[in-house]
Amino acid sequence: MAAVATGAQIIAEALQAQNVGFMFGVVGVPVIEVAMAAQAIGIKYVGMRNEQAACYAASAIGYLTGRPAVCLVVSGPGLIHALGGMANANMNCWPVLVVGGSSDRNQETMGAFQEFPQVEACRLYSKFSARPSSLEAIPSVIERAVRCSTYGRPGACYVDIPGDMVTATVDRASVRSASELVVPCCPTPPVTLADPKAVAEAVAVLKASGQPLVIVGKGAAYSRAEEEVRDLVELCGLPFLPTPMGKGVLPDDHPQCVAAARSRALLQADVVVLLGARLNWMLHFGLPPRFNPRVKVIQVDLCPEELGNNVKPAVALLGDIRSVVCQLLGCFREDTWRFQSDNEWWKSLKEKMNANERVCQRLSACQALAARSSLPMNYYTVFHHISELLPHDCIIVSEGANTMDIGRTMLLNRLPRHRLDAGTFGTMGVGLGFAIAAAVLQIGQKSRQRVVCVEGDSAFGFSGMEVETMCRYKLPVIIIVVNNNGIYGGVDSQTWSELDSMGDLTTIAPPVTLLPDAHYDQVMAAFGGQSFLVRTPQELRKALQSSLDDWERPSLLNVLIDPTSDRKQQEFPWLTRSNL
Ligand code: ADP
Ligand code: MG
């Protein structure tokens, strides 16, 4: 190893020392050398088409592996595009490390090329935002950023690198001596246990419950608590409900999953064990009318500030979910108490689940049978056929309004961390970046899992050019665009022509409309992936099967559906635009 190194090399080596394995970015002045130096020492570099998507991809790696990936961006606009990804990661509590080039130090405040107060701008979107004061300080700042992104509640961190630092050189010996006091590689976060007294209280509250419910959130997925949560739910005989990305921590088809009776379970539970989910909008704040006003919440979270948000918990268990669930399990293993499967609560939930499942089956089965006479297809028909063909271990990425809402109930997850969606921030445009991250993790794996990206047509548009990225790296992602010509829903092509003949479209076209029957499939065809225009269930099945058979390149199925297709009638009016 040469005695002298460039700033780019010091950055790359510092990242490698912190076990950072992936970098997603859009290069340009002044960070090309950083990407090249990272690649040269074995960090995988994925060049994306927009920094926002790059940041989404990097944050998905953080969620899926527990170790942050880097989003590498250029100065000014490059960094500003990445802010959306940082905000999304922070909202989701996912670790990510953004490294941004910035204008040279000797030109600051002079109106330099792409000059922008980057460190300050990132403060609002990150847990830590800093610029190393010298080349020697780079390893310690990067260690701190990686640590900060994963310790406590995970989130985004930012490290700013002025262009002149990238190319400057330094003696490795002086970097080494400056780094002597720094932890060489920040370890995985130390695990915290809940106060044993609080654990005992939680056990007592649960044992006194007549209508308990476990809610499994994406914090449980992130903490890799699947085995422990399964043991607790099964040992105690408790009904559980996953949040959207909590799906798969326990399989959706687990007999104790009461997702099909979600509304009743939330409304009537007297004790809720909340495992890594916030009582925010996604869980209707834990309040009436969706929740029982007297519900006792046993809240498990590693973030102390979260405890008590919106609902005062009956018991607050501060700690890592996996360890805290172990503590609970320890108590219940020494106890004979079990929640009996023949009691009234289980009967009531099962009765509701059977009724709801019958309605769903009727809907999809009838529509599948009547397929030929009822074209264009609707959401239920589309998801019915997709769900029949998808392998059980596939990773489902999903975004869109109806596409995501209906898809969530009809596409089952059987494995933890196998669902990625618009998340806590409700961000549209995340799908392709997430899918790229999930597919990059599959490279070189012995048994590869399929990544399927189910997108609304509007959602697809936000980051649509990332299909080129998928084609370039030969990532066998299957994108299914459920195309209803608009945001929530558009109009058919005949209506569109009529509107067009009536005058200036900018004055009369409904704001929700997108071009009817747009050929999104041709975007994929342009870069050499498989592409399909799909109108019937038969075409859908054939196209999906052919995509599943191809591991060499991505596919896009452009599924034209009825632009007026909507959700099935909801029993409660407040569910009509619900996202859970
Ligand atoms: P969901 O979208 O599934 O409702 P949220 O993102 O709202 O999930 O909530 C996840 C919660 O999990 C956050 O409050 C976060 O602090 C917490 N969390 C994340 N990792 C862990 C962990 N290892 N142990 C305990 N809590 C965690
Ligand atoms: Mg749409």
What does this entry look like structurally?
With 580 residues, this protein is α/β, with parallel strands linked by helices. It contains 23 helices and 19 strands. The model is unreliable at 572-580 (pLDDT under 50). Residues 456-458, 484, 486-487 line the site of magnesium ion (MG).
CATH superfamily of the largest domain: Thiamin diphosphate (ThDP)-binding fold, Pyr/PP domains
Please give the radius of gyration in angstroms. Answer: 25 Å
Instruction: Give the strand order of the largest sheet, numbering strands 1, 2, ... along the chain.
Output: 3-2-4-5-7-6
Instruction: Assign an overall shape.
Output: globular
| Mean pLDDT over the residues | 94
Task: Give the CATH class of the largest domain.
Answer: Alpha Beta
Distance between the termini: 54 Å
Secondary structure class reads alpha/beta
